[in-house]
Amino acid sequence: MYIALHAPDHVFIHAGVVGVEDRAIVLPGRSFAGKTTLVAALVKAGAEYWSDEYAVLDADGLVHPYPKPLSVRINDTRETDEQPVESLGGRAGDRPLPVAVIAFTSYHPGATWALRPCTAGEGAVKLLEHSIAARSRPEQVLAAVRHAATNALILEGDRGDASQAANALLSQQTAS
Amino acid sequence: MAGESAVESVAVEAFGVTVAVTADPEHFAAVSGFLPPRARTVKRPPERGRFALVKNTNDGLLRVICDEQPIAGPFDL
């Protein structure tokens, strides 16, 4: 968190991130919102791993890797097991990527995948809500999230099963 | 600090920020797990951003200190 607050040239957003075909899927969400579960499902479906905690944006809106071990919840408790991405059969990315899809999803058991598209402006505001340094560096954060959202497909809605959501996201990313 | 001990330390840089972490050997590996991935080890610790996990020998509890100020704890691990 200290680095997220003080990094001079990067903006940290609470989000899971994966890479597909040299473009990023960003999944903003607070702690225990299901980011890691969805990121893990995407990795198992073939995506490269960027992070299950932070989307690290530069001034151009590119997403840099923050490939910490995935914090996998133990039996739906708040306890987590730190698992390297290789244990899921995946691999971590090593380069900044432009953002293709930003999906604000809420997990609801049994929900079907029905996300609605949002405007880039809505996406930037929602990203701002998940940013770490919005209060201390508002102009820098706003510029980064605006760049990230400008050319991305922004989606919002409920999701159910993570593997179904992962497949749907990969389809969206490929089509966008 | 009096009544406390911490003996392993590392300083790293990531995303233009340098932090140092200090802890006793028993907890150092766990503390190191909170360092940013792919951080670069540096020789010189920063003037700010110095974190320590310290065990108070009086109550046996752990506290997180940042730049001499307690920021979390006490913990009974």
Structure notes:
The complex is a heterodimer of chains A (176) and B (77). Chain A is α+β, with helices and mostly antiparallel strands and 176 residues long. Chain A is built from 5 helices and 10 strands. In chain A, α3 packs across α4. The mean pLDDT of chain A is 92. Chain B has 77 residues and is mainly β. In chain B, strands 1, 2, 3, 4, 5, 6 and 7 form a 7-stranded mixed β-sheet that branches. The model of chain B has no long low-confidence stretch (mean pLDDT 85). In chain B, 10% of the residues lie in helices and 49% in strands. Chains A and B meet through α1 of A and loops of B.
How do the strands and helices of this protein lay out in sequence?
The complex is a heterodimer of chains A (176) and B (77).
Chain A: H1 2-6, E1 11-20, E2 23-28, H2 35-44, E3 48-51, E4 54-57, E5 63-64, E6 70-73, E7 80-83, E8 99-107, E9 116-118, H3 120-129, H4 138-150, E10 153-159, H5 162-175
Parallel strand pairs in A: 2-8, 8-10
Antiparallel strand pairs in A: 1-2, 1-3, 1-4, 4-5, 6-7, 9-10
Helix pairs in contact in A: 2-5, 3-4
Chain B: E1 4-5, E2 8-14, E3 17-23, H1 25-32, E4 40-42, E5 50-56, E6 62-66, E7 69-75
Span between N and C termini of chain A?
32 Å
Helix content of chain A: 25-40%
Low-confidence stretches of chain B: none
Number of strands of chain A: 10
Mean pLDDT of chain A: 92
Q: Count of DSSP E strands of chain B? A: 7
> Largest interface, per-chain counts?
A-B, 16 and 12 residues
Mean pLDDT across all residues of chain B, rounded? 85
Structural classification of chain A: alpha+beta
Overall outline of chain B: globular
Low-confidence stretches of chain A at least 5 residues in length (pLDDT < 50)?
Answer: none
- Quickly count the helices of chain A: 5
Q: How many H/I helical runs of chain B?
A: 1
